[in-house]
Amino acid sequence: MASEPLSRQLLAEGLGAFFLFATVIGSGIMAEALAGGNMAVALLGNTLATGAILFVLITILEPISGAHMNPAVTLVTAIRGGIGWRDAAFYVAVQLALGIAGAWAAHLMFDLPVIQYSERIRTGAGQWLGEGIATFGLILTILGTVRFRPARLPATVALYIVAAYWFTSSTSFANPAITVARSLSDSFAGIAPANAAAFIAAQLTGAVLASFTASLLFAPAPRRTG
Questions:
Q1: Exposed, middle or buried, 191 (CB in 10 Å: 0-12/13-18/19+)?
Q2: Confidence (pLDDT) at 224
Q3: Do 14 and 98 meet the contact criterion of CB atoms below 8 Å apart?
Q4: What are the pLDDT digits (tens) for 75-124?
Q5: Is 36 exposed, middle or buried (0-12, 13-18, 19+ CB in 10 A)?
Q6: Alpha carbon distance 204, 137 (integer Å)
Q7: Is there a contact between 189 and 25 (Cβ–Cβ < 8 Å)?
Protein backbone atom coordinates (compact mmCIF):
# COMPACT_ATOMS: atom_id res chain seq x y z
CA MET A 1 0.00 0.00 0.00
CA ALA A 2 2.79 2.43 0.88
CA SER A 3 4.13 2.30 -2.69
CA GLU A 4 0.86 3.48 -4.22
CA PRO A 5 0.29 7.20 -4.76
CA LEU A 6 -2.34 8.74 -2.48
CA SER A 7 -4.60 9.52 -5.45
CA ARG A 8 -4.78 5.83 -6.33
CA GLN A 9 -5.39 4.84 -2.72
CA LEU A 10 -8.26 7.33 -2.47
CA LEU A 11 -9.76 6.09 -5.74
CA ALA A 12 -9.67 2.55 -4.36
CA GLU A 13 -11.28 3.62 -1.09
CA GLY A 14 -13.96 5.59 -2.90
CA LEU A 15 -14.86 2.78 -5.27
CA GLY A 16 -14.84 0.29 -2.42
CA ALA A 17 -17.15 2.39 -0.28
CA PHE A 18 -19.44 3.05 -3.26
CA PHE A 19 -19.94 -0.62 -4.05
CA LEU A 20 -20.06 -1.77 -0.43
CA PHE A 21 -22.69 0.77 0.59
CA ALA A 22 -24.70 0.26 -2.62
CA THR A 23 -24.69 -3.47 -1.90
CA VAL A 24 -25.77 -3.15 1.72
CA ILE A 25 -28.64 -0.82 0.88
CA GLY A 26 -29.57 -2.25 -2.52
CA SER A 27 -29.63 -5.86 -1.32
CA GLY A 28 -31.74 -4.76 1.65
CA ILE A 29 -34.28 -3.19 -0.69
CA MET A 30 -34.32 -6.26 -2.92
CA ALA A 31 -34.48 -8.70 -0.01
CA GLU A 32 -37.37 -6.91 1.66
CA ALA A 33 -39.29 -6.77 -1.63
CA LEU A 34 -38.88 -10.48 -2.29
CA ALA A 35 -39.17 -11.87 1.25
CA GLY A 36 -42.94 -11.43 1.52
CA GLY A 37 -42.71 -9.98 5.02
CA ASN A 38 -40.39 -12.67 6.36
CA MET A 39 -37.73 -10.61 8.14
CA ALA A 40 -35.40 -13.57 8.64
CA VAL A 41 -35.32 -14.27 4.90
CA ALA A 42 -34.77 -10.58 4.16
CA LEU A 43 -31.89 -10.40 6.63
CA LEU A 44 -30.37 -13.55 5.16
CA GLY A 45 -30.42 -12.06 1.67
CA ASN A 46 -28.88 -8.82 2.95
CA THR A 47 -26.24 -10.80 4.85
CA LEU A 48 -25.11 -12.98 1.96
CA ALA A 49 -24.79 -10.07 -0.45
CA THR A 50 -22.77 -8.04 2.05
CA GLY A 51 -20.39 -10.90 2.84
CA ALA A 52 -19.88 -11.65 -0.84
CA ILE A 53 -19.08 -8.06 -1.84
CA LEU A 54 -16.70 -7.67 1.09
CA PHE A 55 -14.71 -10.70 -0.07
CA VAL A 56 -14.48 -9.32 -3.61
CA LEU A 57 -13.64 -5.73 -2.66
CA ILE A 58 -10.98 -6.64 -0.11
CA THR A 59 -9.40 -9.09 -2.56
CA ILE A 60 -8.99 -6.52 -5.32
CA LEU A 61 -8.46 -3.30 -3.33
CA GLU A 62 -6.43 -4.32 -0.27
CA PRO A 63 -3.11 -4.24 -2.16
CA ILE A 64 -3.82 -0.63 -3.20
CA SER A 65 -5.37 1.12 -0.21
CA GLY A 66 -5.74 -1.52 2.48
CA ALA A 67 -9.47 -1.71 1.59
CA HIS A 68 -10.58 0.06 4.77
CA MET A 69 -13.95 1.35 3.47
CA ASN A 70 -14.61 2.18 7.11
CA PRO A 71 -13.49 5.16 9.25
CA ALA A 72 -13.12 2.88 12.28
CA VAL A 73 -10.55 0.79 10.39
CA THR A 74 -8.79 3.94 9.20
CA LEU A 75 -8.72 5.35 12.74
CA VAL A 76 -7.13 2.20 14.14
CA THR A 77 -4.64 2.07 11.26
CA ALA A 78 -3.61 5.66 12.01
CA ILE A 79 -3.34 4.99 15.75
CA ARG A 80 -1.04 2.07 14.99
CA GLY A 81 1.11 4.08 12.59
CA GLY A 82 0.00 2.38 9.39
CA ILE A 83 -1.21 5.61 7.80
CA GLY A 84 -0.54 9.28 8.46
CA TRP A 85 -3.26 11.38 10.05
CA ARG A 86 -3.54 13.70 7.04
CA ASP A 87 -4.01 10.77 4.68
CA ALA A 88 -6.44 9.22 7.14
CA ALA A 89 -8.60 12.35 6.97
CA PHE A 90 -8.69 12.06 3.18
CA TYR A 91 -9.61 8.39 3.47
CA VAL A 92 -12.56 9.15 5.75
CA ALA A 93 -13.80 11.98 3.53
CA VAL A 94 -13.74 9.75 0.45
CA GLN A 95 -15.36 6.82 2.27
CA LEU A 96 -18.20 9.05 3.41
CA ALA A 97 -18.73 10.93 0.13
CA LEU A 98 -18.57 7.95 -2.22
CA GLY A 99 -20.41 5.74 0.25
CA ILE A 100 -23.36 8.14 0.29
CA ALA A 101 -23.20 8.21 -3.50
CA GLY A 102 -23.49 4.41 -3.41
CA ALA A 103 -26.59 4.67 -1.25
CA TRP A 104 -28.12 7.14 -3.67
CA ALA A 105 -27.24 4.86 -6.59
CA ALA A 106 -29.13 2.05 -4.88
CA HIS A 107 -32.18 4.29 -4.59
CA LEU A 108 -31.96 5.17 -8.28
CA MET A 109 -31.64 1.52 -9.32
CA PHE A 110 -34.87 0.67 -7.49
CA ASP A 111 -36.75 3.79 -8.68
CA LEU A 112 -36.88 5.31 -5.20
CA PRO A 113 -36.44 8.98 -4.26
CA VAL A 114 -32.72 9.73 -4.12
CA ILE A 115 -32.92 12.03 -1.09
CA GLN A 116 -34.63 10.41 1.86
CA TYR A 117 -34.18 9.86 5.59
CA SER A 118 -34.70 6.66 7.49
CA GLU A 119 -37.57 6.27 9.93
CA ARG A 120 -36.29 2.92 11.27
CA ILE A 121 -35.66 3.26 15.01
CA ARG A 122 -32.51 1.53 16.25
CA THR A 123 -31.69 2.60 19.78
CA GLY A 124 -31.19 1.36 23.33
CA ALA A 125 -28.36 -0.02 25.44
CA GLY A 126 -28.61 -3.47 23.87
CA GLN A 127 -28.10 -2.17 20.35
CA TRP A 128 -25.30 0.19 21.42
CA LEU A 129 -23.55 -2.73 23.08
CA GLY A 130 -24.13 -4.77 19.95
CA GLU A 131 -22.42 -2.11 17.82
CA GLY A 132 -19.49 -1.87 20.21
CA ILE A 133 -19.01 -5.64 20.19
CA ALA A 134 -19.50 -5.88 16.42
CA THR A 135 -16.82 -3.28 15.75
CA PHE A 136 -14.48 -4.69 18.40
CA GLY A 137 -14.71 -8.10 16.75
CA LEU A 138 -14.22 -6.70 13.25
CA ILE A 139 -11.06 -4.80 14.20
CA LEU A 140 -9.69 -7.77 16.13
CA THR A 141 -10.39 -10.00 13.12
CA ILE A 142 -8.52 -7.63 10.80
CA LEU A 143 -5.51 -7.16 13.07
CA GLY A 144 -5.22 -10.84 13.94
CA THR A 145 -5.47 -11.92 10.31
CA VAL A 146 -2.92 -9.33 9.17
CA ARG A 147 -0.57 -10.51 11.92
CA PHE A 148 -0.81 -14.26 11.25
CA ARG A 149 -2.64 -15.05 7.99
CA PRO A 150 -2.66 -11.94 5.74
CA ALA A 151 -3.64 -13.86 2.62
CA ARG A 152 -6.90 -14.85 4.31
CA LEU A 153 -8.04 -11.30 5.08
CA PRO A 154 -10.87 -11.19 2.50
CA ALA A 155 -12.35 -14.43 3.82
CA THR A 156 -12.04 -13.69 7.54
CA VAL A 157 -13.56 -10.21 7.28
CA ALA A 158 -16.41 -11.37 5.05
CA LEU A 159 -17.18 -14.35 7.29
CA TYR A 160 -17.01 -12.26 10.45
CA ILE A 161 -19.54 -9.77 9.08
CA VAL A 162 -21.85 -12.58 7.94
CA ALA A 163 -21.78 -13.98 11.47
CA ALA A 164 -22.09 -10.58 13.16
CA TYR A 165 -25.22 -9.71 11.16
CA TRP A 166 -26.86 -12.52 13.12
CA PHE A 167 -25.25 -12.61 16.55
CA THR A 168 -25.43 -8.87 17.32
CA SER A 169 -28.61 -7.10 18.30
CA SER A 170 -27.82 -4.21 15.93
CA THR A 171 -27.13 -6.44 12.86
CA SER A 172 -23.54 -5.18 12.89
CA PHE A 173 -23.18 -1.85 11.09
CA ALA A 174 -19.61 -1.69 12.52
CA ASN A 175 -18.79 1.30 10.30
CA PRO A 176 -19.39 5.00 11.05
CA ALA A 177 -19.59 6.02 7.38
CA ILE A 178 -22.15 3.39 6.48
CA THR A 179 -24.14 4.40 9.56
CA VAL A 180 -24.41 7.90 8.11
CA ALA A 181 -25.32 6.55 4.66
CA ARG A 182 -27.94 4.21 6.12
CA SER A 183 -29.54 7.14 7.94
CA LEU A 184 -30.13 8.60 4.47
CA SER A 185 -32.06 5.54 3.27
CA ASP A 186 -35.59 4.80 4.44
CA SER A 187 -35.18 1.13 3.60
CA PHE A 188 -34.57 -2.24 5.24
CA ALA A 189 -30.97 -1.30 6.12
CA GLY A 190 -31.82 2.18 7.44
CA ILE A 191 -31.35 3.83 10.80
CA ALA A 192 -33.12 6.97 11.96
CA PRO A 193 -30.73 9.95 11.82
CA ALA A 194 -31.37 10.70 15.49
CA ASN A 195 -30.07 7.23 16.40
CA ALA A 196 -26.89 7.37 14.31
CA ALA A 197 -24.63 9.31 16.71
CA ALA A 198 -24.91 6.75 19.50
CA PHE A 199 -24.13 3.94 17.05
CA ILE A 200 -21.04 5.80 15.83
CA ALA A 201 -19.85 6.44 19.39
CA ALA A 202 -20.22 2.74 20.20
CA GLN A 203 -18.38 1.77 17.01
CA LEU A 204 -15.41 4.05 17.71
CA THR A 205 -15.22 2.89 21.32
CA GLY A 206 -15.20 -0.75 20.21
CA ALA A 207 -12.51 -0.02 17.60
CA VAL A 208 -10.14 1.66 20.06
CA LEU A 209 -10.61 -1.10 22.63
CA ALA A 210 -9.90 -3.70 19.96
CA SER A 211 -6.68 -1.94 18.97
CA PHE A 212 -5.51 -1.99 22.58
CA THR A 213 -6.49 -5.64 22.98
CA ALA A 214 -4.69 -6.59 19.76
CA SER A 215 -1.49 -5.01 21.07
CA LEU A 216 -1.64 -7.42 24.00
CA LEU A 217 -2.94 -10.46 22.16
CA PHE A 218 -0.96 -10.36 18.93
CA ALA A 219 2.36 -8.96 20.15
CA PRO A 220 5.38 -10.99 19.01
CA ALA A 221 6.52 -13.52 21.58
CA PRO A 222 9.55 -12.32 23.57
CA ARG A 223 12.84 -13.84 22.51
CA ARG A 224 14.42 -16.28 24.88
CA THR A 225 17.97 -15.59 25.94
CA GLY A 226 20.62 -17.91 27.29
A1: buried
A2: 63
A3: yes
A4: 999 999 999 999 999 999 999 999 999 999 999 999 999 999 999 999 99
A5: exposed
A6: 12
A7: yes
Residue 153 and residue 49: Cα distance in Å, rounded? 18
Instruction: Give the Cα separation of 7 and 211 in Å (integer).
Output: 27
Phi, psi values for residue 47, rounded to 5°: -65, -50
Give the whole-angstrom CA distance, residue 217 versus residue 221. Answer: 10
Which residues of the chain are under the pLDDT cut of 50? none
Residue 66, sorted as left (phi over 0), alpha (psi -120 to 50) or beta, turns out to be left
Burial grade of 224 (CB within 10 A; 0-12, 13-18, 19 or more): exposed
Query: How far apart are alpha carbons 67 and 15 in whole angstroms?
Result: 10
Sequence-ordered alpha helix ranges (H) in the chain: 6-34, 39-65, 71-79, 85-109, 125-148, 153-167, 176-183, 193-217
